[in-house]
Amino acid sequence: MDYILVQKDSKRRFLQAVAALSKTFALAVPHEEALAIRDEVGLFQEIRAALIKATVTKGERSAEEIEAAVQ
Prior knowledge:
By secondary structure, this protein is an all-alpha fold. It has five helices and no strands. The longest helix is centred in the N-terminal third of the chain and has 19 residues. It starts with a helix and ends with a helix. Helix 2 runs antiparallel to helix 4. It has one domain.
């Protein structure tokens, strides 16, 4: 997680990439190749959730937090 937070704008890019991965995976899930990477997709989703939770600030929720809560 530290690697993601150190680089400029990488948190936003990582969160967007994992959201896109999750949507794509949901569409492809019956396919054998999609099922083969199920654990890897889950790992990225867990990292995404932990990243959002670890970087929460007081006050309003960010777009990433709202999207994570909806999912």
